[in-house]
C-alpha cells in the first residue's frame, strides 16, 4: 500500500483562545476571544481590547465569525486579568489590524461614508486607470 499523508484541515475550529469578531448586535465589529465553550451553539467570550472592549458574556456562534488568530494555550475559563495579559502579550489588536479582513473592512467603511460627488470622482479615476491599463495591454499585444 502507498503512504498515507494525514494533515489537519485548514478550517478554523472553535477552541479556547480563538479570537472572534462580532458580526451583529451591540458589539458588531469588535474582537473577543473564546474563554469557555458552553455547548455546540454558545461560547463564553471576553474582549479585553483597549479600543473596543467586550464584556464577558455568553455569545451565540451564529453571531460571531472565527478569525485565524489564536491565543495559544489559554486555560479554560481564565479570569479577566489573565486574559487581558495574554491578549497584550500576543498583540492580538496589532495582528488583526494587519490582516486583510481588517483592511477590507476599513476600506468598506470608508467607501460607505463617501458623498455622491466623491463616489463620482472615484468612478472617473477608476475609468482612467482602466483606460491606461488597456492602452498598455494593446501596445504589448500589438508588438507580439
Automatic annotation (TrEMBL):
Name used for this protein in its record: 60S ribosomal protein L14
Gene Ontology terms, MF aspect: RNA binding; structural constituent of ribosome
GO cellular component, one term: cytosolic large ribosomal subunit
Domain KOW: 24-46
Presence of the UniProt keyword Ribosomal protein in the record: yes
GO biological process, alphabetically ordered: ribosomal large subunit biogenesis; translation
Keywords (A to Z) from UniProt: Ribonucleoprotein, Ribosomal protein
Family per record: Belongs to the eukaryotic ribosomal protein eL14 family.
Entry keyword Ribonucleoprotein: yes
Start and end residues of each Large ribosomal subunit protein eL14 domain: 55-130
Alphabetized InterPro entries for the sequence: KOW, Rib_uL2_dom2, Ribosomal_eL14, Ribosomal_eL14_dom, Translation_prot_SH3-like_sf
Pfam families: KOW, Ribosomal_L14e
